[in-house]
Amino acid sequence: MATEVNQRGYDVVSAEGERISVKTITSSTHVSFNQQTFDQVDRVVVLRINTDELAIEILMDKPVNEARALMRQSTGKLIFPTYRPPEERLVRPLSEMVVIARAMFGPHLIRQYENGSIEVLTDGVTEPVAKPILRKIAADIQVDLLNGTGSPKTTRQLGDHIIKKLRELEAA
Known about the structure:
Layout: E1 12-13, E2 19-25, E3 30-34, E4 43-50, E5 55-63, H1 64-69, E6 72-74, E7 77-81, E8 99-105, E9 108-113, E10 118-122, E11 125-126, H2 131-141, H3 155-171
Parallel strand pairs: 2-4
Antiparallel strand pairs: 1-2, 3-7, 4-5, 6-7, 8-9, 9-10, 10-11
Helix pairs in contact: 2-3
């Protein structure tokens, strides 16, 4: 971390001495940087905390000169737009990701990938939509469909809890 609270221009210093400005958002459509202190930054990292999917998305991780080229100027600020239409987002296919957890329930194989995604295969065939099957399995093994706030669990949450419960049942 930077050596002072409210360090001018940057938040983190890397092991290589690179001064990094880090911005985190949840739902904002842009982030802004102070133009007067931007010359003290070597690298820019912008992260989106996706609370629905319990994931962190890296929106930008670039040297300052490349980052600046992606920004517009506005009254002493540099603005980086964070919204991208779905057709412009790059989505890495599950086939390129590591499976971090799996469990069997009858003919169903439930797989959890490194990004938290859940895939259900029935008799070796990928289900196009996992959640309906996960709900049935949850009912059979008594996994609650609601999260701590009383809202329905996301597919990722439900799949994760089902895999954990199936592992507990298997170990018992």
